[in-house]
């Protein structure tokens, strides 16, 4: 089974990140007494747009493969299924936590709950 990133989830995640960056930048400028606090909005938006554009080619190619015994991701990251302690969802991400405490993210899933369920069903 292959878990591939979804472009729509990538755009949604970065849209929320941009909204947070815009609000955060405006708040910081307002708190320091800058009379042009509104400039934080376009600055936050621009920062996230540039970041999203720059990382898109890498993030949208990151695939995870699950076999009967392992979960293999980019890098390559190899996680034996019998070493997985927890599977969590966070927005469009699925977090894999191993018994050793290592954490891995399967990013930008269209249906993170379905990804989580598929991994949990494969666990020994």
Automatic annotation (TrEMBL):
Q: Which keywords are on file for this protein?
A: Membrane, Transmembrane, Transmembrane helix
Q: Which residues cross the membrane?
A: 15-32, 38-56
Does the keyword section mention Transmembrane helix? yes
Which domain of life does this protein belong to? Answer: Bacteria
Please give the name of this protein. Answer: PH domain-containing protein
Organism in which the protein naturally occurs: Ruegeria marisrubri
């Amino acid at each position: 089974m292959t878990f591939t990133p979804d472009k729509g989830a990538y755009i949604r995640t970065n849209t929320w990140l941009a909204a947070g960056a815009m609000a955060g930048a405006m708040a910081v400028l307002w708190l320091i007494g800058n009379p042009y606090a509104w400039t934080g909005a376009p600055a936050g938006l621009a920062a996230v747009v540039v970041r999203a554009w720059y990382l898109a080619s890498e993030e949208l190619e990151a695939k995870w493969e699950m076999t009967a015994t392992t979960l293999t991701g980019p890098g390559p990251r190899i996680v034996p299924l019998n070493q997985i302690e927890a599977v969590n969802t966070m927005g469009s991400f699925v977090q894999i936590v191993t018994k050793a405490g290592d954490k891995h993210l399967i990013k930008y899933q269209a249906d993170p709950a379905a990804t989580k369920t598929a991994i949990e069903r494969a666990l020994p």
